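Illustration: Calmegin.
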Amino acid sequence: MRLDWGWLRNALLLSLLLGLGRAHDDSEADVEVEDSLGLDDEEMRVLMSEDEAIAKRTNVASKKTATADANVSFQVTYKTPVPTGEVYFAETFDDGSLERWQQSKTVKGDADDEIAKYDGKWSVEALKENTVPGDKGLVLKSRAKHHAISALLHKPFVNNIFFFRYEVNFQDGIDCGGAYIKLLSHTDDLNLEQFHDRTPYSIMFGPDKCGEDYKLHFIFRHTNPLNKDIEEKHAKRADVDLKKFYTDKKTHLYTLVLNPDNSYEMFIDQSSVSRGNLLFDVIPPVNPARDIDDPSDSKPADWDERAKIPDPEAVKPDDWDEEAPAKIEDSNAIKPESWLDDELAFVPDPSAEKPEDWDEEMDGEWEAPQIPNPVCETALGCGEWKRPMINNPQYKGKWKAPLVDNPNYQGVWKPRKIQNPEFFEDLHPFRMSPFRAIGLELWSMTSDIYFDNFIVTSHKEVADRWASDSWGLKKLVASANEPGIFAQLMIAAEERPWLWIVYVLTVGLPVGLMVLFCWPKFVFLCLIPADSIEVEVEEAEEEEEEEEEEEEEEEEEVNGLSGDNEEDEEEGEEETKGPERTSDDPVSVTVNTESCVESCLVNEPVLTFTCLTSCFIHFDIEQVKR
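Result:
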């Protein structure tokens, strides 16, 4: 009998292919990170060479001082981003001041007096984690308070391709609150000190979350050219799951792009999450319907909307019994012999006692609680026996006439259409109200929301370069500071202990089989105790001596020597000694396997599984050989 190793080879090949696939995915992810920074090869080499030099200096300094920042395990050379072209607004907060920003001094109109005031605190500070030395941002500091702060643009934005970018980091997660930005409309009465929730804005964009509802807002306000009413238009929801951007405590880059052809697109971390057209993909639509239902029209009294009606010529059959019940007693049922008619299913508990504080005048007469009758436990039932109910084969129910087509059917009535008196057609909603300032008007149940690197421009290359010089460095640092794959697996197992079983099955078994398949002799020599090996060596030497003696006997027989007496003597000695145990003896195989298992139990968990696998496969092989 031969052992089929084909399945084992296939398993090992599959494990290797999966490992290569994961390595390939990791390498592609690294390439995507580099590509997302917008740097060419030369710039990336310069950046990494500077990083290596800084890392060396950092290592030397850490050895001398024996201290290090736990949040900064990867250093980059940071310089405050400078716009490389024309911009309408740019802010880095790296100077640590809010001189160009105005905090609101008004109150929220529809809020309680205790919380109506915009007294939430703002601060300029560095990130808590994955810090880039020298980089600072605007931080919302107060929990459960209204915040409002704004700044004027360098110049008003009017009817041009629009790129708006900024960064957000929910450093402590987010329970309920927003991190969206308002671009305030250019009006004659714009006063940043009086900035509040009803201050006119042209665009609102950014993340918002409450409960399990994760949103990315894009709202623009459109002016009706007929009556000058202003209405909010909401873009459709993002096409991806947004939850991770609110929970991973990383800095994310939010981008809104508007084009003169009315197309729009939203990005998170330079990946598109939603796109559409201002004319067709917003709610409510920009342009009203040309025709509408006539509100004065009403359905005629004789209008018949019934497509089917009961057949007026149908007659109920004479044998149709509408009174027949749906269920009847089973006439074939017989009461079991062990059924106890005179016993109750429940009886008073004989061990129950009336509570000492029981007042019969207040509580009534005390009665012992009911318990299942112990006599009924051995019987099929107690009490009055009744036949079980079954479906009535004669049951037909209420007779109804079959349905036929309605000869008078006129269809579903709809009011007539008339021209919409409020109809207008605006084919260029992109030409929305110009805006003059940028503002944050927020309420949050979580503090320490981080904002940074605002930019408004009409040039994609300017926005991309700005992102690579700011958010790109943050992403590099965050990626470098992420725990390795082993640490991530350990963290996941702490939250979900059942993952240990998955780890053992996916790692221990393939490794054990690979070692066993590639180096079987080495594995068995390592697993079998030294005493067993010495015994096997002695047995091997005895076998060699016996083979030599047999060869000598054969030579003596050929030469005509009297070998019969010598053979008899040897057989007598063997009978006296008893049969020798070889490695093929079941007892020897069992002893070796038990010793192998004992030696495995002192190893690490994964190694123990691998070791035991080798022991039992070795035992099976020896049994097959025997």
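Reading the tokens back as a structure: The chain is about 35% helix and 20% strand.
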